[in-house]
Amino acid sequence: MSKTNTVLEQQNIYMQKVKALVGELYGQPKACVNTFGCQQNVSDSEHIKGMLETMGYVITEDPTDADFVLFNTCAVREHAQDRVYGNIGTTKQLKKSRSNMIIAVCGCMAQQQYVADRIKNSYPYVDILFGTHVTHKLPEFLYKRLNGSPRIFDISTDNNEIIEGIPVHRDKSVKGWLPIMYGCNNFCTYCVVPYVRGRERSRTSAEIINEAKLMIESGIHDITLLGQNVNSYGKGLSEDINFAGLLRKLNDLPGDFRLRFMTSHPKDCTKELLDTMAECEKVAHHLHLPVQCGNDRVLKEMNRHYDRETYLSLIEYAKEKMPDIALTSDIIVGFPGETYEEFCDTLSLIKQVKYNSLFTFIYSPRPGTPAAEMPDNISREEKGRWFNELLEAQDVIGRVKEKELDGKTYRVLCEEVSEDGLHILGRTNGTAVIEFEGDTSLIGSFVDVKVNIVNNVLKGAMIKEK
Ligand code: 5AD
Ligand code: SF4
User: Which residue puts its alpha carbon closest to atom 6 of ligand 1?
Assistant: First the structure.
């Protein structure tokens, strides 16, 4: 038996033990999982919920109703961390009114020693804290703590193996996340991810294809492949495969579904990948290619390994191959030492690329990263002004991009019912979400919708059912 199987086998035994124990203790145990941060965390939480269900817990959104409350945390920006501390703080009262309640903290924030220490010392009601390398050991931690073990703190990093076969509870029935690799080797100077998620490691194509098949069989029609840098998929595997090759294999699976992926690093984004996207009919025409900033000096300081011109030529190539491509990006404003003139290069870049939408962030120093040691003379207020300028520029671009859809017909996947309960929200092969009249039986099917923009809202009318 391989080491991975043995690890899983042990946890399966713990899951059965916890199930018996919590059944006695709570009757019908309930668990609340709070997720912060990126899609990788959302996916990890789906596995945590899968384990909890196997242990007999029912998943609830309401922490006041839960016997087990978990915070799966994000460390990418300080603000995200502060929110988590605030949220953990509110459980102190909860625990007073519910004896036997277990509180756990995990994820990227927990993986950092200084955070683990702070939680150990200042949040005595947190029972279990574990890092990103031992998520699969939740059943063991829970069993030990329920059996009276002292508080558990485990941020060990010795397990760099991927543990396959952890049960999964998918939050959505129509679209789903499929991790293809974990970790990051890039060490962008502002980013904490390589420190908290460890080195890159890829799942085998056989495991990924198996999971994709199960997802498609269960009715999922939109699969997003996940990794910090999907373009370096396959490195270190014994099989000879790269990301483009994986996309082709997945594209060959039978069924009516779309494939998406994130995140691509521009330094590893190849013409081969863009050709593959253009040739594979199931791969959505959406490229999330974070540029971070448009100035070469700043890009170098960020350790990004590409320059503005190379980035723009990739974008040109993508547009040439896929004229309907939807482009999105991440931007950091106010990297240490960035001047207003350099920031203006970011403004001109976004105007040149014409992104459909942007994820924008003000630089946040992360302890332990090289950028946190760099001199930073621009005030928060000044950075805030640049940030607003960026948002305003993108607002105009995004609106123009949306107008391009007006009057045209698109094949959309009906994903969910609108908030007012009267409309269906359907996503195009790109990133646009169109609201149109229809009944809930459409959820999960592809339909053609003709767009009609009303008051800047993407509305539409269904043409025919497919
Ligand atoms: N400050 C601000 N934004 C950051 N990101 C990563 N680290 C930081 C930081 N220290 C952003 C990058 C990345 C996205 C996921 O988060 O834009 O692409
Ligand atoms: Fe962070 Fe850069 Fe890795 Fe992305 S590629 S996770 S920004 S270090």
Answer: 191
Residues 414 and 398 in one domain: no
Structure tokens at 165: 């076969």
Q: Which atom of ligand 1 is nearest to the CA of 364?
A: 1
Asked if residue 161 is part of any domain, the answer here is no
Domain, as residue range, for 417 = 409-462
Residues 234 and 294 reside in one and the same domain: no
Ligand nearest to the CA of residue 329, numbered in listed order = 1
Q: Find the 245 Cα to ligand 2 centroid distance in Å.
A: 23
CATH value at residue 434: 2.40.50
Which residues line ligand 2 at a C-beta cut-off of 6 Å? 184, 186-188, 191, 193-194, 228-229, 265
pLDDT in tens, 92-109: 999 988 878 999 999 999
Residue nearest to atom 14 of ligand 1 (CA): 330
Which pLDDT tens digit goes with each residue over 181-223?
999 999 999 999 999 999 999 999 999 999 999 999 999 999 9
Burial class (CB in 10 A: 0-12, 13-18, 19+), 264: buried
Q: Are residues 316 and 381 in the same domain?
A: yes
Indicate whether 294 and 382 sit together in one domain.
yes
* First-last CA distance in the chain: 47
Which parts of 64-127 are beta strand (E)? Answer: 68-73, 102-107
